[in-house]
Amino acid sequence: MTPAEKPGLRMTAQEYAEWERQQTERHEFYNGDVFSQAGGTRRHSLIGTNIASSINRVLRGHDCQVHGSDMRVHIKATGYQAYPDASVVCPPVEGDSDEVITNPVLLVEVLSTSTADFDRGGKFGHYRQIPSLKEYLIFWQDEPRVEQHTRTPDNLWLLREVVGIDQVLQLASLGLPFDLRDAYDKTDVGS
């Protein structure tokens, strides 16, 4: 569900944080509204897991941490709290609790039909307000395609689109390569 749709619950940020700890499903939060996370497909889940695993592999020997879709990101500037499909945070890790980070350097979303417009628009608008964020990757689940948004030193965002299963993406935030084939491993995408 996106903030454009009618939310089911209203609460303060503190009430949300306490309530969310007790839930079996994940919910995002913005401006007092709580939004259920839509259920994902096996392909969506596999691509998200592949991405987090692949980034973790290229980060061996580095201090940065990779988190999957269970780590909540709090955007202090807007109050939005989201669960990206993957995130990378480098020391010092900041957040109000072990359940949230506020200073990711890289965020990843895997597009779903129901969330694609929001992930590429409104959610990215929130993410851009994170001072530490250097890179935002948006992966398609029906073709080997990724939008790479990178922050420049003068605080502009550049878009690079990478298409093709044989492509290697340079992660600008980490200075490391990422093989698109790894993202789509064990899926029928790009084969």
Automatic annotation (TrEMBL):
Listed Gene3D superfamilies: tt1808, chain A
Pfam family, one: Uma2
Alphabetized SUPFAM superfamilies for the sequence: Restriction endonuclease-like (SSF52980)
Domain Putative restriction endonuclease: 14-173
Recorded superkingdom: Bacteria
Name listed for the protein in its UniProt record: Putative restriction endonuclease domain-containing protein
